[in-house]
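Example A, followed by Example B.
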Amino acid sequence: MEQQTREDYIELDLMRLLKAVWRHMIVIVLAALLFGAAGFSAAYWLVPAKYQATALMYVNNGSIAMGGTSISLSDLSASQTLVDTYIAILKTRLTLDDVIKEAGVRYTFEQLEKMISAGSVNGTEIFRITVTSADPEEATRIANTITVVLPDKISQILDGSSARTVDLAVTPRTKSGPSYQKYALAGALAGLLLSAGIVVIRELLDEQIHNEEQLLQSYGLPVLASVPDLLTSKSGKGYGSYYAAAEGKNQS
């Protein structure tokens, strides 16, 4: 019986919190819209635009590079496994230092490494090199410089392996970031959670008894009698005002 009473008490508390959130739903929605607009404005005015330039390179292993007359499935598989090795060579300090020198940019090794991403194209022996920068022309220059520097580095480290340029990067015309929708959605979600959290906390901290049901739920005390509100009536006139009017007639 005690376990059942405790479960009913938790259920009633949850319903109370849900009702409190529902009562303040307009305020919660307005807070979500306000924070969403703030997130969009922050992305539009404060976050700098980013552009991406992409170049494609082809990986071939030793037997392919030696000019074999046929290419077997094992040769292609070996070329695909070399993609990760080539990307690791690309991200080394020696390679990126040469890229910085040849491209004529003023970045440290760590900064340039964060600007570059690479990966295989659909599991093939072709891999993509993408450079992200606030300057579209700079992103293009760095990506194309990598296609010149990387093959020499690969040939120096891996005997018989090489990389060839499949497609050079072109100057991007559209921004790749920031995503205004994501910033607006994140702001709206933050406003929703914050406003709903405030409503729930205020409801939990409210220790006043507002109705008979809450008194019975919280303390288990039955209501023996209730005091009517003498200052209010259904007709809109309070008993207090009626008494004052009657007293005025008696004096006249």
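Example B, a separate protein, is given below in the same form.
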Amino acid sequence: MHALKSCIYNASAGARRPIGKAGLPSGRGPGRRLVGLMLPVVSVLLAGCPDARHGAYQGYVEGEYVNIASPMAGRLDKLRVQRGQTVEAGAPLFRLEAEQEAAAKQQADEQLHAAQAQLADLKTGRRKPEVAVTQAQLAQARAAQAQATQQLNRDEAQFEAGGIPKSQLDDSRANLAIKSARVREVEDQLDVARLPAREDQIRAQSAQVAAAAAAQSQAAWRLNQKQLAAGQAGLVSDTLYREGEWVAAGSPVVRLLPPGNVKLRFFVPEADVGTMKPGHAVSVACDGCGTGVPAVVSFISDAPEYTPPVIFSTETRARLVFLVEARPTVENAARLRPGAPVSVTLR
């Protein structure tokens, strides 16, 4: 009754007589005659008052839109969706021209392959034909060593028999030492040929491979940003460019409204807001969506406001309201259209 009296008082700027218990002017005489004249006015005023007296609060549906944009600029080659279309998560939305990015990706791929091949070469040592050459040189050196050994044995026998001078025996011994040193030299060369490169060279080349891989990843990312897909299911609310138009970097091309981004905004009188808290279940009704749409309170403003703004007084206290937000379930979000007025009741 207090809300009704306040509503009548605030809406009728010309009415200044006190309001009685029945919500009508008190007194006799002209006041009684005024009752008949005010009844139509009261009906109009009640129509404009909030429905809080019936446990319902007025509000509207609001959507938190997701703007899909590419960080890269380019010509819009293909727009794969239309306004009003419902898309699933991962559905392709649009593609920008990407010739330059594709060429950069190919260049990065080739540079990575070259760096990896060079690293593999450093780890494997010399090629097999090169190792085969060193092996042949080793066989030749060993044959020369065996020949020098035989010659030394003959010279020693001849020297014992007095058939050759001491100088010839010394020459045979020196020749065998030379041939034996040659064998050891070629054996060491063969071992070195089988070894990989030095550890410092391998580490340096490994760093080159990592740098090439990072460049390839960056090039691939830039190429992927030229064609975007929906991160989540939703309704295509709008498309902002046509095929063939130039799209600046960061400019939205498609605007999506996921079901989870639909929310309700309604206003609760100051006298009732204390009974609400986040998680409170409410029921929503609107034209076209029916009644009984379930929702849950997600936010209650801590700042009061007047609607319309007036100077605060005891009589205008009924106009003090708080903004409350609620979110419907994902299954019922499609029944609510942003901008539509709703009536919210507590459950």
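On Example B: The first strand starts at residue 56 and ends at 63.
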